[in-house]
Amino acid sequence: MIGAIFHLVRGAHVGFVLAREGGLAFMDPSQLPPHLRLALKVGRMLERPGLGDGAARLSVALTRLGPSYVKFGQFLATRPDIVGMAAAIDLEKLQDRVPAFPQGQAIRVVETSFGRPLRQLFASFSEPIAAASIAQVHKATVIDADGTQRTLAVKVMRPGVRERFQRDLQAMRFMARVVHALSPQAERLRPREVVEILARSVMMEMDFRLEAAAMSELAQNTAKDLDFRVPRPEWEFTARDVLTSEWIEGARLHDHAALAAAGHDLRALGRTVIQSFLRQAIRDGFFHADMHPGNLFVDAEGRLTAVDFGIMGRLGLKERRFLAEILLGFILRDYKRVAQVHFEAGYVPSHHSVDDFAQAIRAIGEPIHQRRADEISMAKVLTLLFDVTALFDMSTRTELVMLQKTMVVVEGVARSLDPQLDMWTGAEPVVRTWIARNLGPVGRLEGAGRAALTIADVVADVPDLSQRLKRILIRLDEAGTGDAQRLEAFARQEKRRAFWSTLALWGIAIGALVMAFR
């Protein structure tokens, strides 16, 4: 009960700040049920005058609410299906920058993590050079046994950040349950699942050993790519609260003057950006999902270099085939094949017509072939495609939405380097290579081999599964008499939960009004 009251107060505070800073302006009232339209109207009455557009207001509100909500805003930037593409693009610019914590605290975190004094770990350890809500970065040097001096980047966890995030995440879970209870239409957007995905993402970001593992995996996947590199993690100096990797010297990708002065070909870099991302997504199924210009450098050899691996995306073989085939289908104007891929993947329910779906996709594809190559947006095509699939009852696929959002960012970065970049011509070699390798004779043989292993595993598990099924049937038979009572109790519990969730939302609204007129 005390916890519920605490979450109500926190929810009221969040609602008030969002309303006061105009963070509710990006919401479309037409998509809400009547009672939530009324709540939105009341909230909009609290807005301060003279504010900017909706997405900008949302960024200001999240910044005021603190680091946890800044991180939530950055996460929403990967979910345009929830906030809309315009707001997602603006949230991508949300700056996760806060004042650095004292040098002494950082040194204590490092020494505690490794159980040794700092002087035994590093020859030098700078003041913080960058700070964010979760961690800050220091520049350090080490001297190897052979006398070689190396420069390293040391990322140090902010003290107390885990406890603060856990507290705020509990409040977010509560608010997601309230939204779900009061707006069944919101279930397509899966608010509770979104918060849980955020929780897992943040918890993974707060264990730097996992980020180092992501860095290592991406480095291994791209080891043979001559135009892309990943810094090497230093496992000896990495722990849960400290991540150490090689220091990257190079020009930031958004500094076009520095790139040109260093003799780099901006047009070639534009192609490298899009092809590197597609190789990661389609070839490897593991991609950097935060490829904004601040996380990309170009080293002295002209190689694109990525940093900050806290947000990564994964695609299974089915999703990679889906992506490759729809991109190739649009390139070749084979809309029937694009439609069939959606049905084969199970993304569109089988009661719909493949031909009707192909017709809807043609309405997206044909206009792009009437325009110049540099006017065609691959990301916009995917955005329109997902809009159309919603009409055919395609449920939200989180991994595909993250892919879509990352592609929007990657395309913007690539086009900033070469405004005339032909995205489709750049993508075609990567897509064709993957399809030829995985859907050709060799790929089919490998697929048959995997299927045979799966069948063998299932056959080997049959005796154990039979025993489990027998035990379950015995228990069901023994418990059969109590099923009706349990179902009735479950129904009463759900009815009470709906009542308290409704009461909670009105508590938040009333709390926001009280805070507004203090």
From TrEMBL:
Family: Belongs to the protein kinase superfamily. ADCK protein kinase family.
Keyword Transferase on entry: no
Swiss-Prot/TrEMBL GO biological process terms: ubiquinone biosynthetic process
Family matches, as SUPFAM superfamilies: Protein kinase-like (PK-like) (SSF56112)
Name used for this protein in its record: 2-polyprenylphenol 6-hydroxylase
GO molecular function, one term: protein kinase activity
Source species, domain of life: Bacteria
Limits of the Protein kinase domain: 123-500
Transmembrane segment boundaries: 498-517
Keywords of the record: Cell inner membrane, Cell membrane, Membrane, Transmembrane, Transmembrane helix, Ubiquinone biosynthesis
Pathway: Cofactor biosynthesis; ubiquinone biosynthesis [regulation]
A Pfam family this chain is assigned to: ABC1
